[in-house]
Amino acid sequence: MSTAPPNAAAVTAKTPKKAAAASFMGSAVEYYDFFIFGTAASLIFPHVFFPDADAQASIMSLATFGFAYIARPVGAVVLGHFGDRVGRQKILMFTLVLMGGSTFLIGCLPTFSTIGWWAPTLLVLCRLAQGLSAAGEQAGASSMTLEHAPDGRRAFFTSWTLTGTQGGQILAAMVFIPVVALPDEIKYGIGWRIPFWLSAVVVLVTFFIRRSLHETPTFQEAKANNQIAKLPVSDLMKHHWRDVLRVICCAFIAAVSTVYGTLAIKYGTEVGNVDATITLWLVVAGNIAALFTQPFFGMAADRFGRKPVFIYGAVASAVVMPFYLLSMESGNALLQFTLSVVVFGCGYAAANAVWPSFYAEMFSARVRFSGLAIGTQLGFLMAGFAPSIVAALGGLEPGGWKVISWFTAAICLTAVISALTAKETSKIPTAELGLR
């Protein structure tokens, strides 16, 4: 007598490599778009979207970067619901198009000199659309890759989701480096728009890769057995609310990335008098290092567990960040590049590589998309507003490295404490994850 579930023939095989590649490219799109916005918010937008390029304009410009993180929790609830109801792949196609379209439109916006305060208003609206997209992208990609991955290698394959963020940041920085070197009349004219328009190329490539990726066997089996939650968020809050809180606090670690990739750039140019081009190369160097280290951190998490690797990444980030910031004032380029690689490629990269599996494994398949999306996006609010908060506290003034360092230490400590309360899931079979 057959014990196969209903419609078992419709359940496809796992394709971990293809899922990892699709997740890599999707994350590359997301973080290309996010990083060019963050770079422009630091170096360009105070001059083109606000009346005076003074300190107040810099704070307001950095605040526009954070507005996407307001939209993210809303998008997490909506996209998480449909991701757990209709499938991971369909939502990932939607998020890809929304992110690419909103980024392209930013490159078309008129400036403050043309339409006044409508210019930053439209910029914020496009940024909110980016945030809605991002709310579902990483949660969907992580869920997709985790459910395609074999037991015992989940952290390695899901690490490629976040390694894609490094690819996107490298591409974005490489595109922006020649832009910041342009004469002001070109740079603040058409020059800054080009990186936003080029996002359309990356989106098209990713669209064709992702379109051929089939739904995960885990979701297909749940659907075949009528195990899809009618209200995933309700189930999530009833059975996994502690895990949601745990993910929120762990996700504070993402603020290290925005401090490193956005705030440190501003600190280096304004306080350390580092050339803007050099600060972008520093980011490129750190992200290139992470491209190579993150898969190894993923393998380490499969062997030794999620918690020790994640906690190491958080502690290392807090310890090295003040030295990196101080190097911005040293005038020593070799020291700056070395510490950039250490703080990001050897420190933060450990937590960054592991969190897709660490967080996703806290939830069952019924609510995995929702739990991962809602938990991370609420936690990422800290990352979104970290640059403007720290700038308002004096982080961009002489000696501001202390403010930035204490802030980084506080968010890393929060992530460490939360991670210590989590259950180690590296040896639990995928089908049993999140079950009580």
Task: List its salient traits.
single chain, 436 residues, mainly alpha, 18 helices, globular, disordered N terminus
Number of helices: 18
- Structural class, please? mainly alpha
**Mean pLDDT level:** 84
**Poorly predicted sequence stretches spanning 5 or more consecutive residues:** 1-9
DSSP summary, beta strand count: 0
Main sheet characteristics: none
Oligomer: single chain
What this model shows, in words?
It is found in: Cell membrane. Keywords: Cell membrane, Membrane, Transmembrane, Transmembrane helix, Transport. Its main location: membrane. This is MHS family MFS transporter. The protein is mainly alpha-helical. The chain is built from 18 helices and no strands. Helix 14 (276-304) packs antiparallel against helix 15 and helix 15 (306-327) packs antiparallel against helix 16 (333-360). It is globular. The two termini are 30 Å apart. Residues 1-9 have low confidence and may be disordered.
Per-chain topology:
Elements: H1 16-43, H2 45-48, H3 55-85, H4 88-106, H5 112-115, H6 118-148, H7 154-180, H8 184-191, H9 193-211, H10 217-224, H11 232-239, H12 241-250, H13 255-270, H14 276-304, H15 306-327, H16 333-360, H17 368-392, H18 401-420
Helix pairs in contact: 1-3, 1-4, 1-6, 1-7, 1-9, 1-13, 3-4, 3-6, 3-17, 4-6, 4-9, 6-7, 6-17, 7-14, 7-16, 12-17, 12-18, 13-14, 13-15, 13-17, 13-18, 14-15, 14-16, 15-16, 15-18
